[in-house]
Amino acid sequence: MISIQKEDIDIGSLIQQSRDIDMGAQVVFVGTVRDDGIEAIEFEADRETAIADLRALAAEAMDKFGLISVDIIHRDGLLEKGETILVIIAGAAHREEGFDGCRFIIEEIKRYVPIWKKDITATGESHWHD
Amino acid sequence: MKITIRSFARFREIFGEARTIETTGDAKPKNVLYSLCEDEGCTELLFVPDGTLHPHITVMLNGKRLSARETEETTLTAGDVLVIYPPVSGG
């Protein structure tokens, strides 16, 4: 599944849905909103391009690392401390491919997929991440 | 001729979500963006001092990412949509 959504992510259900008997490993990355003295983070995406990029990235990771499946769900909108931002599940025959593929995907998301985040402080001030 | 410029996040707050502008028939993306920045008084936002586009800026034309060279050489046509992305920070 590839998605950008406002709704929270049911990680357990996603893991079950992506599981396959050919897999010996499912590597799961969960990005969350860390308490950096902020109140919340607002995410904005160019959804059309970001979804296309995530699909292409999943296909590239499957090809490059021999992954059996890739799921990427990224949230947008206003997220409070502790909330889930992103879930990546890399399903592989062996753990090495899963770890390598999952790491590749998160680094590539941060490198070029058009999603931005803005910190919101308790006083209402905000600033975009570069 | 008219083209549309769209932007997101920090750039959206400066340039607006979308604006239609009038350009000449041989306009290139880089020149159009430079004029846009001059109008807003913020050339340093997209350009480094030597006048080249900042490397962390992404420019798209009709849904396709342009290289720095393509922003200087591609001729725009009526109805084109240019998109400018600030540095991304998802994940």
UniProtKB/TrEMBL annotation, chain A:
Signal peptide: none annotated. One of its GO terms (biological process) is Mo-molybdopterin cofactor biosynthetic process. Gene3D superfamilies: Molybdopterin biosynthesis MoaE subunit. Coiled coil: none annotated. Pfam families: MoaE (PF02391). PANTHER family: MOLYBDOPTERIN SYNTHASE RELATED. This is Molybdenum cofactor biosynthesis protein MoaE. It comes from Methanogenium organophilum.
From TrEMBL, chain B:
It comes from the Archaea. InterPro entries: Beta-grasp_dom_sf, Mopterin_synth/thiamin_S_b, ThiS/MoaD-like. Pfam families: ThiS. This is MoaD/ThiS family protein.
